[in-house]
Amino acid sequence: MFSSRLYHFCVATILCIFLCHASFHAEMCAETEKQALLKLKEGFVHEMELLSSWNGDDCCKWKGVSCNNLTGHVTSLDLRFSNFTIVEDLNYLLDTMPVMEFFSGTTALGGMIDSSICELQHLTFLDLSHNDLVGEIPKCIGSLGQLTQLKLAWNGLNSVSDALSNLSNLQYLDLRKNDFVASDLDWLSHLSTLRYLDLSNNNLGAVIDWPSSISKIPFLSELYLNDCGLPQVNPQSMSHINSSTFLQILSLSGNNFDSSILSWVLNVSKVLTVLDLSHNELDGSIIKSFNSLCQLKKLYLGSNKLSDQLSDYLRELCSAKDLEVLNLDHNPFVNGSLPDFSLFSSLERLSLQHTSIVGPLSFGHLPRLKALDLSLNNLSGSLPVFEVTKFSSLHFLDLSHNKLSGTLPSTIGQLSNLWFLSISSNELNGNIREEHLLKLSELKIFDVSQNSLSFNLNSDWVPPFQLVALYASSCILGPQFPMWLKQQRKLQVLQISNTHIMDLFPEWFGDISSSLLYVNVSHNKLSGVLPKSLSGIKTGIMSTWDFSFNNLSGPLPPFPPKVYELFLSNNMFTGFVSSFCETSPLSVTYLDLSSNALTGPLPNCWQKFQNLEVLNLANNSLSGRVPESFGNLQSISSMHLNSNNFSGEIPSLTLCKRSFRFVDFGDNNLEGTLKTLLELDHLVVLRLRGNRIRGSIPTSLCNILSLKVLDLSSNNITGEIPQCIGHISAMSDREFRRETILYGTSAPLIFHDSGIGHFIDEISLTWKGRNYELGRVLGLLKAIDISNNHLTGEIPQSITSLVGLIALNLSRNNLTGFIPDNFGRLERLDSLDLSRNHLDGRIPTSFSNISLTYMDLSFNNLSGLIPLSAELQSFDVSSYVGNIGLCGSPLENQCPVEGIPPRGRVEINDDELGFYIGRWLGFCVGFWSVCGTLMVKSSWRRAYFQLFITVTDWMYVTVVIFTARMKRKFRS
């Protein structure tokens, strides 16, 4: 027996040595697979560090490639682009703070998937997700018979092949977020081992029998079909579908399903633990459907049309004691108080955002609750005392956008697991003291903005937390810059605008964090210079820095190279912009340096800012010529150079004519003609007011069909208004489309957008006789101002086709002729100024159709009665002064007869004169043709009188006979 054991021991030892030796001396990858990988690399468009390692003889050592240690065959290919973290929607109420990573210089894979991938016959795992791949999935991919996981999500692939049905060992298939358009899903029924399927965010609108196809996958346990445009189900066709004993997770969010989808959901599985029907059209008729889904642990019904009382739905949940996640947000429930959730003893996440909850805030005992969202409701009263025993597990608390009042209870500082706290946009007041933050060591997101709270913290206080985001706008942090921020080394978002800080900008700010993504310290009274250390801060590629509306001075400092939005307006920065060109971030897309004290000419360096979309240099003291390099900004959409001292000719901007939407060069000393700028045929706003523009208005103006605001006032423009002006279709649109010319990013952590920076185009426009700064309403405005020029000729009839016009100013020109009769077509016109011209004739009666709030027709040659309407009689006399021939209310000189103009000023046009002359001549000819002949020819005269006597006798006899008959008739 001993020898037998010794034998087996020796055999086992030799075998172990052999296997260990083999593992350390595995074969190199097969040459055919190495060549296949290199060919696959050639098909990609890439700058990835990942593929830079693809060289050398052994492909098993390349990044993203894994091989079998014994055979050397490639078994796994992982080329997903993972240089960022996707943060799920807040509706799912995260347990922990997601890690935010910044984009580096590397980019995702582009191009197509080469068919050489099919030569990797031993692949079991393939992940190419989160790239920019396009085209089709190679049909030969169905030959990869050993593949168990296929992940192609988040690409631009446009076709899915039926060949996938040959992947008989496939267990995991993720094709979400592509451009697939499918007409059937029958191929899925051949994937007999499939456990996980995600086809979300593809176009499946033509797959009529999708429920039947899904039901044929025998062992499917997780199914995601979100935002696929799926057709409605037919409840009558559900009878032949067998219930699955495996499907546990079902997500059908965002398909506009009505309540009939419940017939399939209840039939397809009896063991569902997770159900997501959010963002659909479900109504109150489903209220009884959930009493049979007793296995549910997570239920998402947000953004539907659920009505009735919120508490009515809770009674029908037979899984109340086991439910862990409940999301009912954004439903139109009947106004009611917060229901009692004490029966939901296992509840961990609860979202009732925007569900019409009113009244006081009160909580039951929910010992496992981790996340609670009651934002966007009408909760009122004071915050309750947060008992640690009730909320010991709480990680996430959002009470923002309610009507909560009073002070912040100090017990909130005992919630030691809290990482997200938002109480913004309420009516809270009082102080935030150290005891409020005492034990919040896990706090990462802190939002108290839009309240009347004051931070009352010692200058040497050291916080127990390291914040990632602080939102405190419209609170009181000042007057000193909060020193406790100096300890926050992980800040990515700092929003402390309008916080009453009146201090020097701190030198240590550049050391506050190595990864600031968003900074907003605007609308304070910060002074001094910005430190040069700012340039050393590492930022994300979409970073926003807003220092506007302060008292900062000195030259423009260097900024981090990857700043995306930079707002420095309304400060006291001085010096030349040339320094900015030398040290500026080349990735800047929105640059606002307006309303400062910048001087000198602009450098001719703008060609290197190829990402620049918005440039605002308005309200400075810049001079010299406009740089020619502006014409190379091929991404530029909006440019403000107004209110400076620029001179010389307007440069050619034709290279960027496709992108330009907004041009404001007003109030400078620019010369030249309009021809150059009118080549920008996608303009929405063109303002050249207060320059020295000469020449006439070219007919090419009429080709800018998107033009909504045109201001050419106070120039030296001559000639006539083009007759084709009525062809500008954007001004002919009666609808108010809020195409607000608004630029900027949303909150970088996507939790909410409170106070996040953006840029709104503004314009100074003469409206209703006064200058206005128009911003947010600019997208609704349609206006023409060509006043104070040297225009001649008549107002073109076609201008009345611009029925969407809100404001029209043609004053202070040399226009003649009549006001077009059909001027009343401009029913949306609010402001009209035709004063100080040489217009003749009457005020058209169609004026009574226009609801004007401002009108000036003064100092013309108008005459006749002022038409009667509530608006025209309500204007002051100054609106009509200087028109000698006008009469009627509100003027004192009334017309002699209502509707008849006064003597001495009767104007008859050519048609009326011809009519009167013709009528007089006809009368004269007819009269003398008869009477003259009778006077001259006696025989005709005798015959005429004889005829007259004969007719008279006949009439007399006829009357006598008729009278006699009537008398006899009455007697009888």
TrEMBL record:
Its main location: membrane. InterPro entries: Leu-rich_rpt, Leu-rich_rpt_typical-subtyp, LRR_dom_sf, LRR_N_plant-typ, RLP23-like. The chain crosses the membrane at residues 943-964. It is a single-pass type I membrane protein. Keywords: Cell membrane, Glycoprotein, Leucine-rich repeat, Membrane, Receptor, Repeat, Signal, Transmembrane, Transmembrane helix. GO terms for cellular component: plasma membrane. It comes from the Eukaryota. It is found in: Cell membrane. Residues 31-68 form the Leucine-rich repeat-containing N-terminal plant-type domain. Residues 1-22 form the signal peptide. Belongs to the RLP family. PANTHER family: LRR RECEPTOR-LIKE KINASE (PTHR48063), LRR RECEPTOR-LIKE SERINE_THREONINE-PROTEIN KINASE FLS2 (PTHR48063:SF98). This is Leucine-rich repeat-containing N-terminal plant-type domain-containing protein. It comes from Phaseolus coccineus (Scarlet runner bean).
